[in-house]
Write a structure and sequence with these properties.
Helices cover about 25% and strands about 40% of the residues. It is α+β, with helices and mostly antiparallel strands and about 130 residues long.
Length: about 130
Amino acid sequence: MSAAIRATLHRYYVAVWQNGDIAALDDLLTRDYVDHDPLPGFGADRTAAKTMAAHFTSAMPGTRLEIHHLIVEGDLAAAHWSMTWKSGGQQHAPRSTAHAHMRGHDFFRVRDNRICEIWHCEAILA
């Protein structure tokens, strides 16, 4: 089970956040998915997750994502990651640098190889 959860989360990060494949969320998130830390202006359900991901990935060209740690225990998983993208002056990226950098920590509950819950914390770095 651990290998299947790792594969699910790897696909979540690479397909969605690095490559901008929002449609992949249809296979990655359960219908009753809950984001326990939704960003301001976005809801906590699966539809909101797709909207939020589309909003951010469209404003983050050339994203490179690195998963530093991925720990799985039972149906729970924790990830520590970082990503870099061309800033282009978006409102959520520092305007003074050619690239923006973000790191974060995510905690997941996975059911039937789909993400059903997420808790997350991100920090944009200059």
